[in-house]
């Protein structure tokens, strides 16, 4: 695609803005003051990303480095669309690009829309340095890198591979940020959806170390009596 395509995407994006949606998103996302929030619904953005999935990576970079929130999200969704059909070396190129731009993935919705569908499939492929990449992200001082590490493992959970997530939960359970606590609980809940006994066994062993919100999120889908056993002590 050409620069004309980037301009066309930006024009379409602004035409999709809804003032009412913007008001709601301002309350939920609480973007920094230098962010411009247009008020575009996420399903609409996903459709736009499908239409522009062949946008050049240099144009995706322009979107990611801008201060329009929906442009950054659109760029990440384009990467996700590309990742769905990429294989081998093409996947590695997309992952390298994503990892080089995590500084632009600077809110929880941007992380949650991209980590498991851009970085996640590469983790599923089982590259030798996957563990090192997760450890580097989890050890970062940048909050969003840490959340990326956690949420990316959703792709592994969906394949029945739980240990990378459980290892991150153990390593990040004392993280100071509530947004990490919530992400840990979310991933544990996803494990419990697939293997409730595994989740229960993990909680029995580690619940004293886990933040309260993590335990509450993790146990949401357990039977009421089982959930109460963990939540009442928090």
Oligomer: single chain
**What does the main sheet amount to?**
none
Strand content: under 5%
Radius of gyration: 19 Å
Shape type: globular
- At the first level of CATH, what is the class of the largest domain? Mainly Alpha
Task: Quickly give the structural class.
Answer: mainly alpha
Quote the distance from N terminus to C terminus: 53 Å
Quick summary of this structure?
The chain is mostly helical and 234 residues long.
Give a verbal description of the structure.
This protein has 234 residues and is mostly helical. The protein is globular and about 55 Å long. The model has no long low-confidence stretch (mean pLDDT 95). The chain folds into two domains: 1-85, no CATH class; 101-234, Leucine-rich Repeat Variant (Alpha Horseshoe). It has helices spanning 3-15, 19-29, 42-51, 57-65, 69-85, 89-100, 108-125, 130-138, 143-152, 154-157, 163-172, 178-194, 196-206, 212-218, 224-231. The termini are far apart. The protein is 71% helix and 0% strand.
Characteristic key phrases:
single chain; 234 residues; mainly alpha; Leucine-rich Repeat Variant; 2 domains; 3-methyladenine DNA glycosylase AlkD; DNA_alkylation; ARM-type_fold
Topology:
Elements: H1 3-15, H2 19-29, H3 42-51, H4 57-65, H5 69-85, H6 89-100, H7 108-125, H8 130-138, H9 143-152, H10 154-157, H11 163-172, H12 178-194, H13 196-206, H14 212-218, H15 224-231
Helix pairs in contact: 3-5, 4-5, 5-6, 5-7, 6-7, 7-9, 8-9, 8-11, 9-12, 11-12, 12-13, 12-14
